[in-house]
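Please check this.
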Amino acid sequence: MFPAAPTPRRVLPPAAGPPAPDTAVPAADAPGAGHRAAGQAVTEAARPAAGAGREAAGSGRDAFFDNAKYLAIVLVAMGHSWEPLTGLSRTAGALYMTVYAFHMPAFIIISGYFSRGFDLRPDRLRRLITGVVVPYLVFETAYTLFARWAYDDPDLPVSLLDPWYLTWFLAALFVWRLTTPLWRIVRRPVPLALAVAVLASVSPEVGDDLDMQRLLQFLPFFVLGLNLRPEHFALVRRRAARIAAVPVLAAALVLAYWAVPRMTSAWFYHRESAQELGAPWWTGAVMTLATFGCSLVLTGCFLAWVPARRTWFTVLGAGTLYGYLLHGFLTKGARSRGWFDGHTWLHTPLGEIAVSLTAAVAVTALCTPPVRRALRCVVEPRMTWAFRKEPVRQD
């Protein structure tokens, strides 16, 4: 929910920009620094984006995207904290389903947007390794050792091909980024990626290595991000979009409240085929397209209300990968210790509010600069010792 290499820069060239990371996730390399508006086609809707960029000029980052990443990671952490509450609370279940419909798609779209400039150039491959592969290896091992302790399972193997809990995102991001050059040259990349997702959703034979179902079913969001431009984000930041987002989100919550006892939220996890969810094979195609559309609408509503100006939490947007990777230890630790089962008051409305606030505060703390400084060696390592020096090019 969720960047590890150098963080994304403020402005991006129309065709290629720094690959991102998100959810945190590592921002890949940006080829250029200056973003030019496309000719004189800068509309009133696009001007707020330019203003936001100027506000962030001092830090070289776009405040809008940092704000979006921080708010998204807060929703990721809150969603994970609501999961133990959904069995006894229909309201918690509705909030959980609504948030799960768009929090990871939002992260993945932003990751794709910042990956537009990724190619197989040596410096970008180095950043892919240090910003994605190394954190994956470190945290996949750490989570497995943690699970051995938390669930008293000393025989649980360390498997780098079977992501545990949150690390699937890094594995998927690695593959998505490697395939970026392909998506940049094919015609109609988004429909093609949707076709891949649909085929995966009706194919229970897809293996579990690298959580392949999630990798393939979430692929359309990444490819969509690759094809977005600044003016597309400007569209959802207009006043009309903000106003429209309110009734749409309200309707989504009402629909989710109705759906809680009637359907499983597992459709939004995108980690299993339709057959594995006990549904007819053709349901996979229908639900893949339906959830894609639903996720896009809710992501647009979310982005419509993301502040474009610098706020107190803008600086935390640079540390969302830390919050994403670290909050899982708290979430899984609380569940393994039976906190939700042993404290029935947590299942009351006040308890649910307390759980939500605790999750938000905890993940916020994990995104702060002191945590980043302490753990940069494993989340954003430089590793200059591991790579050959590039020869100086002479023109």
About this structure: The chain has one domain: 44-386. The radius of gyration is 20 Å.
